[in-house]
Fold:
Amino acid sequence: MSEAIKKPEAAEGMILMQGVHKWYGQFHVLKDINLDVKAGERIVLCGPSGSGKSTTIRCINRLEEHQQGRIVVDGTELTHDLKQIEAVRREVGMVFQHFNLFPHLTVLQNCMLAPMWVRKMPKREAQEVAMHYLERVRIPEQADKFPGQLSGGQQQRVAIARALCMKPKIMLFDEPTSALDPEMVKEVLDTMIGLAEDGMTMLCVTHEMGFARTVANRVIFMDRGEIVEEAEPDTFFTNPKNERTQLFLSQILH
Amino acid sequence: MQTHTFKPDLPPPRMSVGVIGWMRSNLFSGVFNTLLTLLAIYLVWLIVPPLLNWAFFDADWVGTTRADCTGQGACWVFIQQRFGQFMYGFYPSELRWRVDLTLWAAIIGAAPLFVPQMPRKALYGIAFLIIYPLLAYWLLHGGALGLSVVPTTRWGGLMLTLVIAAVGIAGALPLGIMLALGRRSEMPAIRVICVTFIEFWRGVPLITVLFMSSVMLPLFLPEGMSFDKLMRALIGVIMFQSAYIAEVVRGGLQAIPKGQYEAAAAMGLGYWRSMGLVILPQALKMVIPGIVNTFIALFKDTSLVIIIGLFDLLNSIKQATTDPAWLGMSTEGYVFAALVYWIFCFGMSRYSMHLERKLDTGHKR
Structure:
């Protein structure tokens, strides 16, 4: 992990969340979330389980619906309009904790599906794009295997390649390394660092603090549905302001 | 530094030695099991030889009338003489080539779908599914382009059984899938309609459905308006079986992890594409045994059309056994019927097992 990743002063706003609230039934999961992400920014969200960090990023591509406030992604506001939602999802790639590859399709077909059916890309071109990104995550030789035949780390790298094939402007990572065996965490993190080096706008929910330290522009700490603290990684790790943040950090950084 | 040397892979230990070892462990592993084995052998001895004698060794195979059956065994002459009727019902004999041609068209038309390397298979499959029913209707029913009309009242035998089964399957599967999707829809109106439909048709016996379609429906239709009895039976079968298919498919849909729906949605695939490209291929694959089970039941249930006076395979045979010239032939007739039903049902069952193996991509590790 190099310290030399450029952290560009971002210009335009990519994601804007203003006063976002969400409830599951009576349970108030998100309370007044305000977030402004510029193009090329890399944000790490952390916090105890049930703090609403996954829900926050899942609101950005409308896998979860917010009930109050505004979310604007790359100029498109998320409303009940299905067209708008699909427009946002085309530009936002997502990587899940449990990979969620399609087990009935080969690795290559997994990567070609969305470009062909959503972007209407011709088959040959979709195949080229898929192979390009599979090479980038360094598993082109697995292209014709089924996901069930790969290791967890390989599957997660395929999932990253699959999301990249749509050439998204924003990538969301929902605990991408939490379901992996310890030996496989590094290969996935290295792939993500590579993405960051290329200037991708990224939001990562993760407990990998080493990753947060090297890659993030900002670290956001959430607890009980609220953003408790938001700071640059250096400040965040060495000099957390909030008592709750200090407690959390003391528990995960032994 | 020390380097660890790994031990070599060894073959597993031998559990048994040869045929005798296998028999000792599987058939005679104790007093009780030995007794069971001997009892089973005795039962086989009791049942199988007389059955073989009746069906093969003492049976009469050649002849033209009942008088040619002199032996103690089965009189297969009866089946042979009436074979045409069992296959085609009252379809005019000089036009039976049209039925044969329909069957050959199905076999030849569907054959490319089983060639793994065939390009544009999906497109061909859809074209086949659209063109073939029209062709089959034209060949069987006629009435256009120089083919004379054969009304459905003259259809019968195995041909009618296959028509009902094929139309029932081809109609019930897509309708059932749509109902299953509708039952899981987020739109309350659609959900209510689908649930009502499914629960209604699952709640009535098929025999009632057929009876109602044949006897009651004409009472509700305006004077002078009637439509074909076979058509009514077909619609009844499709409605009835689609409700069962819907519940089988719903089981598959529920077994697909939520993450699959989310991954498809997150890519920007809309509802229909998510379902068609991601969810249904997995869900249907998972419920192949259940779907084929329903198809087998459907195939056997076609024999219930006897209640509305259609002459399917079973009814044709029943009819033939009442012929004064062939009295006392019901055993042969029903054994033949059972054999034909069994061949088709067993064929479906084996094909579904083959399909399961073929579609297994090893994700259930």
User: Anything to note?
Assistant: The two ends of chain A are 21 Å apart (CA to CA).
